[in-house]
Amino acid sequence: MPAEFRPLNVEGAFVFTPKVFPDDRGLFVSPLQEPAFREALGHRPFRVAQSNHSLSKRGVVRGVHYTLTPPGVAKYVYCPRGRAIDIVVDLRIGSPTFGRWDAVELNSETFQSMYFPVGAGHAFIALEDDTVMSYMISGTYVPEYELAISPLDPQLGLPIPEDITPLMSPRDEAALTLEQARDQSLLPDYATCLEIEAGLHD
User: Per the record's keyword annotation, is Repressor included, yes or no (predicted)?
Assistant: First the structure.
């Protein structure tokens, strides 16, 4: 059975829900399925240039991270262990959904996955100790291209649970607000993001 999918409140972002096959040995699941991806986005998945794996304790907040565009990257993210609120934020100047975000609880029961288009910001909040997040990305990591928006920016109002005390890196604690990043011309251009993303699937 192919994965189900639905669009999120950020233009070009989707959540995918695969069929999970449990038995007395454990389970089997395919978090990324090309037919569902093609049906949702109209093209094949991007070529994966790098895969990332993070382990977080409860309360860790990572993000809002994004990549300077160009070069820009697309991401496909799922949670193979634990639970996390995964958040996509539209940082693309000129996008019809600029400044909006959407959130999905990713976990090791449903194995839902999220697709982040080029130029979108990514954040997550670990809800359990030993939460693992797995990322497939379309470009390799270059430190000077990696930027961040504060996940505590009140203008964004991200859904951090009241019983969570955010544990953040110094980089994320010092991150700019969305307004500050816009004033400093650090946010990606929507049209440029679309052009780059189209090239990822040629």
Answer: no
